[in-house]
Amino acid sequence: MQKKAVVLYSGGLDSTTCLAIARAEGFTPYALSFAYGQRHAVELARAREYAPRVGAVQHLVVQFDYRQVGSSALTADIAVPKDGVGGDIPVTYVPARNTVFLSFALGWAESLGAFDLFIGVNALDYSGYPDCRPEYIAAFETLANLATKAAVEGAGHFHIHAPLIHLSKAAIIRRGLELGVDYRLTHSCYDPTPEGLACGLCDSCRLRLKGFAEAGVPDPVAYVE
What is the band of 50 on the pLDDT scale with cuts at 50, 70, 90? Predict the structure, then answer.
């Protein structure tokens, strides 16, 4: 009998690959997305379209308004940087976002009787977010096993899977293609046009384009530039 796993799923390149990996590793994936007031909400349309096709048995979209927290270019009236990936934590960082997302995932997993959570964070080709680091994932796993009835009563041990964390973007793409991921149905841009075209200049677009170039395959999504 396959084990259940909750997979954080934005509709982007990394999370879609992560969902495909969970399925390939023998898990029954339950996809979890968030409508949190992000300016790049077109990713949710991709997530809704692709989740069943990549093998999610259920797709839950949780809605809350993180714009009330502010201070991020993804949730506030702050320009998305278009001048390349720098050395500092960029303004596209959303305060404590992965902690909030993993907390929702942990709650759903416990209610499902699942002890495996998948998240597509990456600490190699990424924008420098602190909640994408291996030590953060390890710390949250410790928290999960301290803070839940299921773990405290010995029903199981929660494990946070981050299969992409040490991979380059090119390696992630190659792995996804091996698993049959159709990257046409993913979206990565932080600042898309109203029609959903990727800008090609934000950090996320730059990292994605670099990954496809290094993987030696064309990026199948449409860009403004």
Answer: confident
